[in-house]
């Protein structure tokens, strides 16, 4: 029975290959290593980053962001969808939705916009993100108002696609029916219940 602790044991015990997906691993020194571009780029020893931050007297905890990793993920997701669309002859378009409520940091939004401008994202998607961000940045609309506007539009589109059927619309949007009913009332929209009554 194996009793010595080694790199393979660390990777297996903490399921690094599972959650790291090639972006993170344990290097020969036993430290967590980031590979923002997987095998197509360099690697970063996170302990070295922490030690350098400590040497600079930076306060902890630290937020370490890998911009290349973000771009690589966006590119990978879009390539996967475009390949599937081509393979199966899908007649519509794929439009990824950036969850602003998850990350509102300027650097993150700009990285996604830049990916679109360089051709890694569909131009209509990148353009919509760029316009939305520009409006928030210029102060013509607040981020909270923009979220509500997008939410209302998504609910309205789902209701239109399902001919007002609130149960089907909820399933389409991936939310529970009571929550969608609240949004329908909140935004003054019209939906049809399973018994045929309007709400």
SSE map:
Blueprint: H1 7-13, H2 16-20, E1 24-26, E2 32-34, E3 44-45, H3 46-55, H4 67-88, H5 106-117, H6 123-138, H7 143-161, H8 166-173, H9 177-186
Antiparallel strand pairs: 1-2, 2-3
Helix pairs in contact: 4-5, 5-6, 7-8, 8-9
Keywords:
single chain; 199 residues; mainly alpha; Arc Repressor Mutant, subunit A; 3 domains; 3-stranded antiparallel β-sheet
Describe the structure.
The protein is mainly alpha-helical and 199 residues long. It has 3 domains: 49 residues, no CATH class; 76 residues, no CATH class; 53 residues, Homeodomain-like (Arc Repressor Mutant, subunit A), CATH 1.10.10.60. 55% of the residues lie in helices and 4% in strands. The chain has a 3-stranded antiparallel beta sheet with strand order 1-2-3. β1 and β2 form a beta hairpin. The longest helix is centred in the middle third of the chain and has 22 residues. It is elongated, with a radius of gyration of 22 Å. The protein starts with 6 loop residues before the first helix and ends in a 13-residue tail after the last helix.
């Amino acid at each position: 029975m194996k009793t010595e602790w080694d790199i393979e044991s660390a990777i297996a015990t903490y399921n690094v290959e599972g959650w790291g997906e090639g972006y993170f691993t344990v290097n020969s020194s036993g430290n967590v290593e980031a590979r923002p571009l997987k095998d197509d780029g360099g690697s970063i020893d996170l302990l070295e980053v922490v030690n350098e931050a400590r040497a600079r007297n930076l306060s902890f905890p630290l937020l370490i962001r890998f911009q290349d990793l973000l771009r690589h993920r966006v590119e990978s997701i879009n390539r996967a969808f475009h390949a599937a669309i081509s393979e199966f002859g899908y007649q519509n378009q794929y439009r990824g939705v950036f969850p602003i409520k998850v990350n509102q940091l300027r650097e993150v939004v700009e990285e996604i916009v830049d990916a679109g401008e360089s051709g890694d994202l569909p131009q209509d998607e990148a353009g919509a993100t760029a316009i939305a961000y520009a409006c928030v940045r210029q102060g013509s609309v607040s981020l909270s108002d923009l979220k509500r506007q997008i939410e209302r539009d998504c609910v309205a589109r789902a209701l239109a696609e399902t001919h007002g059927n609130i149960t089907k619309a909820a399933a389409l949007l991936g939310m529970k029916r009571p929550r969608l009913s609240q949004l329908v009332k909140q935004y003054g929209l019209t939906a049809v219940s399973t018994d045929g009554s309007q709400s």
